[in-house]
Amino acid sequence: MRTLYYIQAEKAGMSYLKTSLKGEYEIISLKDPKECFQSIQYLKDHHQQFPEVIIMDYPMSDMSGLHMVESLYEMLPDTHLILLLPEDNEELLFEIIKLGIMDYILKDKGYTRALSSLIAGKRLQVSI
């Protein structure tokens, strides 16, 4: 089964994701960037498959989401990275676009459905 990491500041979207992606992804909830990098290092050291999708909340406790995305792009070029952004921060959105990050979702009331759709789009790319 494919793996999805969800690095989250809050638990709100987790149950919806587990329901909508049931049977397609093993969803692993991580509390912060440090735990994510430790897990990736473990996978690397034990020659195991990296997660197919990583979803990250912004902001995060230890490291900014932008810095983490840049680091993960370098480490895992084949992993689909998705950044969850607060809906009221236009400056941050501009920085995201400047960096070339195309997979982001604004965290409004319907963000969990948008997130599932974005992941579904990745599944379509993989199956072609």
Automatic annotation (TrEMBL):
CDD domains: REC. One of its GO terms (biological process) is phosphorelay signal transduction system. Residues 1-122 form the Response regulatory domain. InterPro entries: CheY-like_superfamily, Sig_transdc_resp-reg_receiver. Keywords: Phosphoprotein. The keyword Zinc does not apply. The keyword Chloroplast does not apply. The modification 4-aspartylphosphate is found at D57. This is Response regulator. The lineage of its organism: Bacteria, Pseudomonadati, Bacteroidota, Cytophagia, Cytophagales.
